[in-house]
Amino acid sequence: MFAMQKKYKKLIYSHETALFIHNLSDRTPFEYSATVPSGYKVVPNIIDKFKIYYVKKELHELGVLSVKSPFGNQIKVYNIERTICDIVKSRNRIDIQILSDALKRYANNKSSDYSLLMDYAKKLNTEIILKNYLEVLL
């Protein structure tokens, strides 16, 4: 499944899948999550296998990393800070336990970049909600 990205260049692994890749979740996702730019035509083959999120074109590449998948393929995935913003923004579509666990792990991670996190939160319009969650944790 991680090889799908070679064919679909705009597909960026995100949300629960990115949490799992970054070790911010122990749960193996039931289905892969990916983000594409608004207006991008997602073929039925992908829609059947992925939970698709859409984002404004100018925000699509924000926080993208190239990493090796668990199967050894190079894939595009959002960095940890972008992933945290995405799950907070999509909190109504994400299991609350996954969200809570990810935020706790992020807060305990020594390499967390709160400045970058808040910069992304402003751009993704999640700043107020994210601050509320972080106030409880910190």
Structure description:
- The chain has one domain (4-137).
- 43% of the residues lie in helices and 17% in strands.
- It has seven helices and five strands.
- The strands form two sheets. The chain has a three-stranded mixed sheet.
- A hairpin with a 5-residue loop joins strand 4 (64-68) and strand 5 (74-78).
- Helix 2 runs antiparallel to helix 4 (80-89) and helix 4 (80-89) packs antiparallel against helix 5.
- The longest helix is centred in the last third of the chain and has 13 residues, at 96-108.
- The radius of gyration is 14 Å and the shape is globular.
What structural class results from the helix and strand content?
Answer: alpha+beta
- Strands ordered across the widest β-sheet: 1-2-3
Give the ordered list of helices and strands. HEHEHEEEHHHH
| Range of helix content | 40-55%
The end-to-end span amounts to: 37 Å
Residue stretches low in confidence (pLDDT < 50, at least 5 long) are none
Gyration radius, in Å: 14 Å
